[in-house]
């Protein structure tokens, strides 16, 4: 498996940081869970959940751009983002990103972007 390009890793980190910042600032949560995984196809999956008061994207307040930032960053990496309520209460932010690279080349043993 090849390492993802630095640009992608930096954006993923910024997305996670923004989502966690939203939990701290707005969720009134007692717990927050973060999972980050890469499946066998190379797709990156990021899930941030909290047990706070919950948010709906349409409830975004004027002057608050956290959700817009998340959406724009996800789109810039051809990712998808879903924001909604957890069945048990709180908010769920789920993102997925297609592979940022192809697998190792069998001929050269190098990664290809």
TrEMBL record:
Pfam families on file: HATPase_c (PF02518)
Catalytic activity, as annotated: ATP + protein L-histidine = ADP + protein N-phospho-L-histidine
One GO process term, biological-process aspect: phosphorelay signal transduction system
Keywords: Kinase, Transferase, Two-component regulatory system
Domain annotation Histidine kinase: ranges: 14-101
Entry EC no(s): 2.7.13.3
Record keyword Transferase present: yes
CDD domains (UniProt xref): HATPase_UhpB-NarQ-NarX-like (cd16917)
UniProt-listed InterPro entries: HATPase_C_sf, HATPase_dom, His_kinase_dom, Sensor_HK_TwoCompSys
GO molecular function: protein histidine kinase activity
UniProt-listed PANTHER family: NITRATE/NITRITE SENSOR PROTEIN NARX-RELATED, NITRATE_NITRITE SENSOR PROTEIN NARQ
Name this protein carries in UniProt: histidine kinase
UniProt organism field: Stutzerimonas chloritidismutans AW-1
Record lineage: Bacteria, Pseudomonadati, Pseudomonadota, Gammaproteobacteria, Pseudomonadales
